[in-house]
Structures are given as structure tokens and as C-alpha cells.
Amino acid sequence: MGMQCDVCGKKPAMGNHYARRGKAKYLGGVGRKVTGISRREFHPNLQNIQCQVQGTVKTMRVCVQCIRSGRVQRPQRRRPFQMPSNL
Description:
Elements: E1 13-21, E2 33-42, E3 46-53, E4 56-63, H1 64-69
Antiparallel strand pairs: 1-2, 3-4
């Protein structure tokens, strides 16, 4: 699926965007006033990474929170090929 984490299922969520004007009270103004509210969408921070799943390496779209919390296992790094020294 598009825009959905393959591990936790996090997907876009709806919210509001508040347009404000004025100067804050603590800065000496009369306060900030809301002049408009419009709908907006919050998208998860998805990354395409290689994950090790049941012994095989797969490319998955995973949110950054899953990567940082250790819910995905990255594949082991392989050493670059070297010629055998006994030749």
C-alpha cells in the first residue's frame, strides 16, 4: 500500500492547519487570533530500507520510529570480495 508503514501500519492522519495573526501577549501584543482553519494531512516519515525477514532480505517502506526503536532487523554487512591468498 502507498504511504503506509510495512511494520506498524502507520498511515496519513488528518488534522487542522491554523492560520494566525497578531502579536503574542508576552511580547506586548493583544494576543494571537485565529483567522482561518483548514484541513491538512500529516504524513508518516517513511524510508525505503532493506530488512532481514525470516532469513531473506526484503526492501520495505518503514517509518523512522520503527527503525529507531529497533523493530526492524537490518541485514548483516558483507565484506567485499578478496582474492584467496594461497594462489
